[in-house]
Amino acid sequence: MESLLSQFTLLSDQALLDKNFDPSTIEDLMKLFEVEAYKSWAAMELEYHHESQGAEIALQEAEDQLESAMEAAMDEFRRFEEEMERVANTELNSLVSTAEGARMMGNLMEKAATIASKRYIEAALSSATASMKSAWKGISSNRVHPS
What we know:
Number of domains: 1
Protein name: Maternal effect embryo arrest
Order of helices and strands: HH
Distance between the termini: 148 Å
Structural class: mainly alpha
Shape: rod-shaped
Number of strands: 0
Organism: Parasponia andersonii (Sponia andersonii)
Keywords: Coiled coil
């Protein structure tokens, strides 16, 4: 492009100095400028295409790394979730076992209290019956109690 500019300067100077200058030589030079511009444009387009492909490859690599990191994070989360579920199940089973033991103990205490109250009632009835029998004996034998 620089050589074309220097040639254009030379032809411009020649056109000013020479009255018989042929303007078609400048037109030919302008066509060379046009060709050079197209070459430059094509080179930039090719460079853009190469950079675009490089950027797409870098983007794909970054996406792959991100996907890999996300997959690793999800695997870690799943392992953590499984561990938490296992711990929760162990604790739940322990609580269920403790509750079952407390329920059984409550049932046994209820039975023991029921038996104790029945025996107390039986003893009270036996005592009352014995007192009544003693009182009937005293009445039937016409004895009066000394009190």
